[in-house]
Here is the input.
Amino acid sequence: MQQQRVVANRYSLLAELGRGAMGVVWRAQDQVLGRAVALKELHPPQGIAAEERNVLEERMLREARTAGRLNHPAVVTVYDIVRENDRTYLAMELVDALDLASIVQRHGPRDSTWMANVALQVLGALETAHQAGIVHRDVKPSNIMVRPDGAVKLTDFGIAQAMDDPRLTHNGGIVGSPAYMSPDRLHGFEASPASDLWALGVTMAHAVEGVSPFERTSTASTLHAVMNEPPVLRRASPGLAEVIRGFLTVDPARRLTAPQARHMLTAISQGATQVSLPHNNNGGKKKGTALKVGAVVVGIALLAGAAFAGYQVLKPKETTNAGPNTSTNQTQENSTEWTDPTALPVGAPLPSRRIATFGRGGDVPEWNLSGTQCAKDFLTQGSPVRQDVPCNGPHGIQLFSAATPLWDKPKDIAYPGTQWLADFAKNYCTEQFKVIEPKIKEPIGFTGLVPTQKEWEAYNDAAAPGRQEVLCVLWKQDRSPLAGSLVN
Here is the structure.
């Protein structure tokens, strides 16, 4: 029988809980105090540079110091830190729970009331940290543990930063998870309590909608989505959607504050479906932190940003529907030029790079896909797309991107017109296709779908809400089935 491994003559390793590129987390028994603990072992791969190893060790030390300063039931308690045989170990509270990302993956989108209760506890942990002058910098579903009884623990303060501390990155880079970074951080501002709240808003959207709202096929497209594409909230209750949108306000000076969010989340957790957004009096904040939505340089070129970010600040044209362009011939499947909507007989396949309408009265009268979901049948004139199928099995089409061009305007804004939306979709879908095109080994067709005026105006319809997005869809040019996802 293999002898049980003991660390520092105190911690008996019982079972491996998780393993990553930089270390292992063990279930261990503290032989001195007789309690179960989680023991995090830093174990970088062979050949790692000494400077990088020092940064990793400093992060572990920072996690211990940071958590040790915080006294809140939703913060994981750190008990001890030891070094033995050139390895560093962190003994911490053992939390028998799944993280929020795993819960969503295994059990699907979360109920809004349930999520409000979880968010309240995370918010409490963040408020405690912020009051101590600490920003977490990596709030995301995988760092939120939820026990079966509903108790929450916010973990991984390894890259947390005291507001008066030097940053850990030796090269000045931004540390964190791109899909959860706020626009102000991408603009180069330091992490702040407001950026933690943005990340909490993204996390809430992920949990209630079932998909990460800004996660895309590449870092460039992910960062572009953060800057230009607010999440589509179709499952969240009206009240929770207000909280999420409040957290995801681009200008940090106008972002929902923790006290405001606590007031709203408490009401939702008690059964309220709608809550009012409290008045945000931020007169004492610097106006210079206001951000303009648009293309942004964040160390890499945002592939889709320059091509269409200008549409974000254009005023919509006349609200009358631009109507089909009957003088334009139907595009050939291998054409590289876009054509505008043309009249097609019912049942005819919709060609590549020919803008089509979706929703009430559109070429595709009903559309129920979101994220990067797939559907069995191909796009044909007059046929709805009601149900998704697994992308890892045979399917006809895949939604590979979507954008809300007038997301920062009131949702009752007048319809900008088919042609305005078509121009937006041509630029947007072309640039998004360029992101995935290098990975594709066979001829692919793609097009943009824009909402009809009736679909647009039904956005606030409680029974059957409309959509104000443009959608980018792809398929094989020979109309044979796709065998797997092209964007995941």
Q: What stands out?
A: The chain is about 25% helix and 15% strand.
